[in-house]
Design goal:
Length: 186
């Protein structure tokens, strides 16, 4: 099956902009990789997406506030040669075009897998993981499909990060989810 033209164009943009790919990174020890949903205290709503929990954690904890998600990094990077003010705006635009065109999720997430893979490969030092429920390859979660495999091969992360990702890989690939939510803040 041919790749949708919007996906192809986005991938070509990334290929042409090596300097931009190198900037898709958090500072040393500030990378957060996340996925899934976490339990909610509200009895009417059983779970909350992890990224929403992260925003609350960043607001409540000054040391955690320095950590960066992929979207934090993409929001500050330009998208040269496009009409978009940031790389995040460009990726969101492409994602919206694909969704409105009825492109299936497995194909739509290709741009996010590319960006997340670059982000994970550029991580340095300690990486924080916040992984909740509903993280599996079958659920088409970018963490399960891409990030955990890339970070496992990253020679620039610390030993604890590598141990944690091996645990997560075993859990996600064997059980379809981690046995417990993990949070690491260094």
């Amino acid at each position: 099956m041919p790749v949708h033209p919007e996906i192809k164009s986005f991938m070509q943009f990334l290929a042409r902009n090596q300097h931009l790919r190198q900037q898709i990174a958090a500072p040393m020890n500030q990378t957060i990789l996340y996925a899934g949903d976490m339990a909610q205290n509200n009895p009417w709503k059983r779970t909350t997406p992890v990224y929403m929990k992260i925003q609350a954690m960043k607001a409540a904890d000054p040391s955690f506030a320095q950590k960066q998600l992929l979207n934090d990094v993409l929001a500050r990077l330009p998208a040269p040669g496009t009409p978009h003010p940031s790389l995040l705006a460009y990726a969101d635009h492409v994602d919206g075009v694909l969704e409105r065109a009825g492109v299936i999720k497995r194909e739509r997430i290709l741009i996010w897998r590319a960006l997340s893979g670059i982000y994970a490969s550029n991580a340095r030092g300690a990486v924080s993981f916040i992984i909740g429920k509903g993280v599996s390859v079958n659920d088409l979660k970018v963490f399960a499909l891409t990030e955990m495999h890339v970070i496992a091969r990253n020679q620039h992360v610390d030993a604890i990060t590598l141990d944690m990702v091996e645990y997560l890989k075993r859990c996600v690939l064997t059980h379809g989810y981690p046995m417990a939510s993990l949070i690491r803040n260094v």
